[in-house]
Amino acid sequence: MPAQRTIVGPGAVAAVPAEAEAITGVPAAQLRAVLVVGPGFDTRSWAERMVAALRPLPIRRYVHPGPATPDGVLRLARLLRGSRPEIVLAVGGGTVLDTVKAAVALQPYPDLDERDVARGCDDPELRRRWPVDAPARPAVVAVPSTPGTGAEATPFATLWDTAAGRKLSLAGPELLPRTVILDPDLLVGLDRTVLACAVLDTICQGAEAAWSIRSTPASTAFGLSALGAAAGVLDRLVAGRLDDAGREALLLAGHHSGRAIAEAPTSSCHAISYPLTLWLGLAHGHACGVSLPRLLRHNADVTTADCADPRGVRHVRAVVDRIAMALGADVAASGPDGAGGPDGAGAARAAAAAARVERLLVGAGLTPLEGLPVDAHDLAVEALNYPRCHDNPRRLDVPVLSRLLGTPLGLEESCS
């Protein structure tokens, strides 16, 4: 699998034609290219500039209406199989990027239906037995126009089986985009709520890739890097004072969070988010972020009796403490509750980090968990149906998670 190339900076989209030539060895004017965008593309202030920058490429445009479903993916895969482009340029948020990645991965397989795609997500080995009848896959150039999802950096795609009411994941090395363009100019015009949802996704991905029982040194390093970069601009984002440097920081934070979860999958916050998105239509980052404050404090209080990570309590507490510090928690060693010592200080920092995430939710006008019309027990049952919920470093079961999700922020330590 070729190494992924990343191009970062204002105006970086201008590099796309040259990058397409470098990937294919074909002059830009002779390439077949498909541009996949979301329905709001033409309303963005930079859309005309982007089209002009891409002009050397003879481009066919395809508008994906969203969400990323098996049906939508198959529709795009059939178009790609018929037009046989060498390059597919995905410009948009995680929905567009995941749809393109999945469609390119499924392009070689004719006559698939939605059930085949769902079964292929559940059983990757099944895909090896599908008959192949298509040319080589095109190279994907991913251009995120929202920060946070990290979809441009991951070898998997999130799909939504709305009929069955479940989230799917299509995974494989063929889903990793060949080139990533991180252009902060593309974030201009996004409102505070959209940006906050994206940042919450970044923060959750960074935290979960670090605290997961499947975490690696690489997932932890990328996760903490994502958290630190995002934390550095939170106050400016809430105040509506995000500048070019802040937009670039958010893009890089999201990219690092994607690289983190490419090493170690997300865990509890994301498992909780899936039913919230399916039931209430919550934006993904919002759905992830509402449970993070509770899980930060919960995991900081891990004990020998309920530790799920084979590396032990000290490891989990140390990682959660690093997460809290990366989020900007600055609490004296004794902690505000007078709990003295390393453990007390770690719990205090986790509480401070949790409070900062909660302030981000409120400041961006996003409803916190206690304001959502959902039953905590039902949410716990559904979240625990996703195996990744059990990658949380402190064991979760229905009674524990029900109490955790139904307890007001600040009282989570009673959920042991």
TrEMBL record:
Q: Which domain of life is it from?
A: Bacteria
Q: Which organism is it from?
A: Plantactinospora alkalitolerans
> Any idea which UniProt keywords this protein has?
Oxidoreductase
The record ties this protein, via PANTHER family, to:
ALCOHOL DEHYDROGENASE, ALCOHOL DEHYDROGENASE 4
InterPro entries this protein is in? Answer: ADH_Fe/GldA (IPR001670), ADH_Fe_C (IPR056798), Alcohol_dehydrogenase_Fe (IPR039697)
- Where do the Alcohol dehydrogenase iron-type/glycerol dehydrogenase GldA domain residues begin and end? 4-184
Fe-containing alcohol dehydrogenase-like C-terminal domain: which residues? 198-330
**Per its record, how is this protein called by name?**
Iron-containing alcohol dehydrogenase
Pfam families registered for this protein in UniProt: ADH_Fe_C (PF25137), Fe-ADH (PF00465)
Which family does the UniProt entry place this protein in?
Belongs to the iron-containing alcohol dehydrogenase family.
SUPFAM superfamilies the UniProt entry points to: Dehydroquinate synthase-like
